[in-house]
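[09:14] KT: can someone run the structure on this one? pasting the chain below
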Amino acid sequence: MAQQDTEQSGVLPVDDDGFVIDTEDCEERETAYRERGTSRPITVVGNPVLHKECRDVTEFGDDLAKLVDDMFASQRTAEGVGLAANQIGVDLKVFVYDCGDDEGRRHVGVVCNPVLVELPADRRRLDDSNEGCLSVPTAYASLARPDYAEVTGQDEKGNPIKVRGTGYFARCLQHETDHLYGYLYIDRLSKRERKDALRQMAENEPRYPVVAND
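[09:31] RB: done, structure tokens below
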């Protein structure tokens, strides 16, 4: 098993294919992030920060570390499995995740400046499971996405990383990357399905603090 060539703390090891090993010490790592952070309310559909491409992360210092901690705290409060920075009102390309895959493995990590790897046609098997979003609270809809995903980017220290996932975790990687380019999952639905999701949201109360749209 290869190790990233760095002495910085908090950097995940990588496997022989160069992908981060984000399944080890998940509880300890997530707890450390979360306990340093402060939970923030979630922005919801209609907030302008959710509907435009975010800025690239260019500085990997204390401000970013604090943001990541707050994101993990906010994600736990909202009982989510992934959270993009613009979901707490911050216009930066970073997301965090604490998500299981279809094999029952837990994944915990951070990705800055994510880019989804385009899969060849013979590797694109679609899964049309239900999808939800903390920024569209209480609404769910079936959405077909590839059941495998690879994302390239950087960790919170600025090191280049690759992350891959299957099943539910693959959906999470695609969903959160979409956020940072200004897309919500409901933007990928038909007009009728989108209208139904917004109706579900309007008819129910979120279980976590949200930022009201003026």
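[09:33] KT: thanks! DSSP finds four helices and eleven strands in the chain.
[09:34] RB: yep, looked fine to me
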